[in-house]
Design brief:
Distance between the termini: 39 Å
Helix content: over 70%
Strand order of the largest sheet: 1-2
CATH architecture: Orthogonal Bundle
CATH topology: MetI-like fold
CATH superfamily: MetI-like
Order of helices and strands: HEEHHHHHHHHHHHH
Number of helices: 13
Number of domains: 1
Strand content: under 5%
Largest sheet: 2 strands, antiparallel
Oligomer: single chain
CATH class: Mainly Alpha
């Protein structure tokens, strides 16, 4: 019996491939091209090999920006994941308040990133901002425009306010998908709330929490607009994350070769960390 092969599906796949190639592959190849060449203008390029990669990897400036980025990423993960789970556990599962809670949780995610940075910049100003005025009136010497510690506090608080809702919604989706039979069996066995959370709710949320961790990990590494609008990378370079430093090299200094090499290293770091987190969180899932 001859099997008929239908090739019509390619008519749907080819436009997607072309779109992905235009939006991802072609720009990536352009960056790779710049990363191994030197240019002095007039579209004249000279082969430089891996010199730009060596320069970036041995640069103290890159190491400092990477250290600040890692501190920021792991700090917000340590705050937002537990906080998001805790809020999701307190939300109602049935009734009219479900819609109200979901809408309130989704509101911060609907605000554009540049608006979030501008809002918190005004909100935290030491003299006219509400948060800055309250903290200073309580005796704290708060000024995020001059003190690095205050700038970091404001930056992390802004990100927690903006993105914890994403973790909440994902965790809540995992919670509501748990069948009632599990809770009924736990009540019959006399399980306490912590035991229910540890052995029923947390394992059932594993997949959605993996998605939440990966999304927040990648988003935190790609973050640019909010910290740039809020602090501009200052005071000094205290909040200059990798993305801000990369833009300064590429557009501020117009060093296309080092910027391209840094972009590829940046991409590989995000890819490696995402793979590492996914592998660790999904360990034992196949068993």
């Amino acid at each position: 019996m001859n099997k008929t092969v239908n090739q019509k599906a390619w008519f749907f796949v080819i436009p997607v491939v072309v779109l992905v190639a235009f939006n991802a592959v072609i720009p990536l190849m352009t960056v790779v091209n710049y990363s191994v060449q030197e240019t002095f203008g007039n579209n004249e390029f000279f082969w430089s090999g891996l010199d730009w990669f060596k320069q970036i990897l041995h640069s103290d400036r890159f190491h400092q920006a990477l250290r600040r980025q890692l501190i920021f990423t792991f700090t917000i993960l340590a705050i937002e994941i537990p906080l998001g789970i805790a809020i999701a556990l307190t939300m109602p599962r049935k009734g009219p308040w479900v819609s109200v809670c979901l809408v309130l949780m989704a509101l911060p995610l609907l605000i554009p990133w540049n608006v979030v940075g501008a809002m918190w910049n005004i909100f935290a100003l030491p003299k006219i901002g509400f948060m800055g005025h309250v903290l200073n009136s309580m005796g704290f010497d708060f000024n995020f425009t001059r003190q690095p510690g205050d700038a970091w506090f404001t930056l992390i608080l802004m990100d927690v306010w903006h993105w914890t809702s994403l973790v909440v919604l994902l965790a809540y989706a995992g919670l509501v998908s748990i069948p009632d039979a599990y809770y009924q069996a736990a009540r019959i066995d006399g399980a306490k709330p912590f035991a229910i959370f540890r052995y029923i709710q947390l394992p059932k949320m594993k997949r959605v929490l993996t998605i939440a961790v990966l999304l927040r990990l990648m988003d935190s590494f790609m973050i640019y607009t909010e910290p740039f609008v809020l602090t501009g990378g200052g005071p000094g370079n205290s909040t200059t994350l990798l993305s801000i430093d990369l833009v300064k090299i590429a557009l501020g200094q117009f060093d296309l070769g080092p910027a391209a090499a840094m972009s590829l290293i940046y991409f590989l770091i995000v890819l490696l960390l995402s793979w590492l987190f996914y592998t660790l969180m999904m360990r034992g899932e196949e068993e």
